[in-house]
Design brief:
The chain has helices at residues 55-66, 82-85, and strands spanning 2-5, 18-19, 29-31, 37-39, 43-46. By secondary structure, it is of the alpha+beta class. The strands form 2 sheets. The protein has a 3-stranded antiparallel beta sheet.
Amino acid sequence: MIGRPLPGVVGESRRVVHLFPGTGRYPDTLTAYCGEAFWSGDLEWLDGPAGMPCTVCLLRLRRSQAADPRPVRDASPEIPDAPHRLGLQPPAGG
């Protein structure tokens, strides 16, 4: 689950996007992977990644996924379909 504090709950510089373990329900209090706890009514829920992420949440999520027996793909600096998604034409010959 992905959420960030609503405007006014924290200062704008602290309205980072936190990651929460997916429970399939919204309890009164949620604790993000970074350890920060929030009242669920103080969070704006997002459909996907948007805004500035909480770095600690990202690192801890990655670490928890590393314990998963399924292989984890290495991050690649090149995304083959990125030009297409941006509406750009790929370079000639490539």
